[in-house]
Design goal:
Layout: H1 17-26, H2 28-50, H3 56-74, E1 87-92, H4 94-100, H5 107-119, E2 124-127, H6 139-153, H7 160-172, H8 175-186, E3 189-196, H9 199-202, H10 207-218, E4 224-227, H11 235-248, E5 255-257, H12 261-264, E6 273-276, E7 289-291, E8 293-296, E9 306-309, H13 311-320, E10 327-332, E11 335-341, E12 345-347, E13 354-356, E14 368-371, H14 372-376, E15 389-394, E16 402-403, E17 412-413, H15 414-427, H16 435-458, H17 465-469, H18 471-483, H19 491-523, H20 529-537, E18 545-557, H21 559-565, H22 568-588, E19 592-597, E20 600-605, H23 614-639, E21 645-661, E22 666-671, H24 673-688, E23 692-695, H25 696-702, E24 707-715, E25 724-732, H26 733-738, H27 742-760, H28 764-768, H29 786-790
Helix pairs in contact: 2-3, 2-16, 2-19, 5-8, 6-7, 13-15, 16-19, 22-23
Amino acid sequence: MAAPSGGWWQRRGGFGLYELLQSWWRHRASFIISLSITAAALTLYYFTFLGERSTPIFELLQRLEYDSLDTRFRYRPEKEKDFDHRIVIVDIDQHSQEVLGRWPFARWHFARMLEVLHRDGAKVAAFDITFSKPDESAAPLLRFLAELKARNARGEPVDAKLEAEVAKLAAESDSDKQFAEAIKKFGKVVLGNFFLYTEADLQKLDDQTLDQYANELSYFSFPQVQSIKSRQGFGKQDYLSLIGRYENADMLPHGAEANMSSLTSALSVEAASTGFFNEPPDTDGIVRRTTMILPFGRSNNKSEWDLYGSLDVMAVRAYLGIGNDGMVLTYGEHGIVDLQFGEGLRIVPNDIGQALINYHGRAYTTYKHVSMADVVKGNWPAEDFRDKIVLVGATATGIGDIKSTPYSGTDYPGVEIHANVIDNILNNNFLVRGAKQQLCDAVFILILGIPVGIFMALVQPRWMWFGAALLIPLAAVDYGAFRRGWWLNFTIPAMTLTGNVLFVSLYRALVEEKEKRKVRAAFGQYLSPEVIRRLLVNPRLVEPKKTNITVMFSDIRGFTSISEKLDAQALALFLNQYLSDMTRIVFNYQGTLDKYIGDAVMAFWGAPFEEEGHAARGCDAALEMMKRVGELQKEWEAEGKPSLEIGIGLNTGVASVGKMGSELRYGYTALGDAVNLSSRLEGLNKDYGTHIIVNETTYQAAKDDGFIFRELDLMRVKGKLEPVTIYQLMGRQTDFAANGSAETVRLQMEAFACARELYRNRQWKAALSRDSLKSGRRTGPLALTWSAAGNLLPQNRPQTGTVSS
């Protein structure tokens, strides 16, 4: 189609808006597919990651996204895992059980541990343990003392000194009392408790026990809970709405287990407290987020329930020394707004007090771990605890609280999860996923949907791989954002891109296959299968253009006399076999068959693909054709058919090549002086007694490819003033070497060159004389080849030295 004429908007090039719109309109169905994929992706994104509830198919997408997030954690460089060195973990590990005895340990071990930590300057001690029942280590002494008192009451004789000694030992063995005194002396201690959710957790606890635990917790509810100023009149309504959000998320506790009253009463310092250590996992069982606030109460009226802080929140509060007035939770109509740790630290969780944990490394490779036995025995440097938050938790096999985290496996201690959360709170570096990140996700979905869809609709099929390659920069952007604390969605944008590439490519492949069949039908008679395969990639290559090609004309000599000797049927079979073999040779050397002109064959190389070496391929094809003709001659002579000779002309030059003809009939052909000259070269073979003649342009292009050429003459083409040199293509050097005639050919070439020089100087008789070499500089073996060389001189030559065509 011709380029449209008109203003700037119709021109080709940078401002070819008209052609761009035309191309887009032709592929509008592909764009509609992309638009549909984008709309579906946005819908999936909303219901999967923004909706209130999820269905199994949406949960599958969530898990895919969780896997992509976990991969980012696992491949984050070690140098970027900058953790807070103010956090130390004291492990109740296997070594502790070997040294301190069977679990549960006597409470006086914990008392001794607190004494050591206090002596070494630890600032906060937080327990990922609940001490809900009395210590049993002094139970035998207490039972013996009770029996002595019972005997004394019955009037039985009892040694008063024994009773006093047993009473003294029992008092000294009261581990709970020793632990409580150690807590009071240490000051900033945070005891752990946990909430109960399942029927299995509650079935062995009666209401009295649950009420008792709830009463113990009520003393340690969140210090300050307030509504935002703009919702002061709706505080109660917003509070019930907040609790309703927990209920919708299935996060309302049905009970709790708290610490003993004797221990909680020892938390006399204002910053000392208790905190829950529940860390519920995501749907795939992996802990990725922490819950910092939970509502709890035993009343049927949920407005009477209190809010409680996690162990991590309360540990940070104790470390920063925040009083009740400075520890504030603010909520509004959309849930929790923020947590204020005094004036210097503000944490913004989601609407139910959750935040994404920004893990700083694998288990046991980040925060310092110290065995509890080493602390109790004083076998650890004091400076490791000075001004630190010390987390105490179980990690030993059988008693450890082991969780699954993004680092895979089930070997991550729950106490180390709390270390990461405390780190995130202190440095306010939780993994962020909020409105900004969701907006970025939507933008990526739109970009990878509509613009990429337009690109996929407009580009040639060979460039469609570029669409799939965009997964690499998408992953790079998401990973870069993750390293800076943002969680951007990868799954839905990647699905959008993949869907675009897959469905648009599939559609174009199915629809454009019709066009490819047209190409095969139109050009199958001109081109080899390999060339057609490459042409299907870019059908525009057959549009008319000027390019450098090598043109071949091949003709049968004396075809008229041959046709007179054969009937029509035999002549057709004869000619079909000959043309089929010649065409097959053209195709084997990636040539283009232009046409048959009776018994003549026209072909060319260098189009539709502009490639180097087309002159050499044309020469190879010509030699192969001569070889095949020789084989056919033997077959036809054996069958009694007439023999034939052919002449071939080759010329390299610029020609107009492309689809040409009328609207009703067209063909792929070449036109121009280069074509005409090739035809005339073929005809000169009769005058020179040769088979293959090439122009000097073909000679220059192919002379370094192992061919042997012999300069024949100068000729002047009709309409041209300057004569051109023509050459005979004799063969390949390797072929002559293989059959042992290389030396003979060389001598013949030298003899002919000598005679040619005499002829050029108009020494006609000397050129034809056998003795001419003896009077010249060349002697010896060259004279023996003169008879053969003389036979190669042109026949019936005019004495002007040129041939007019």
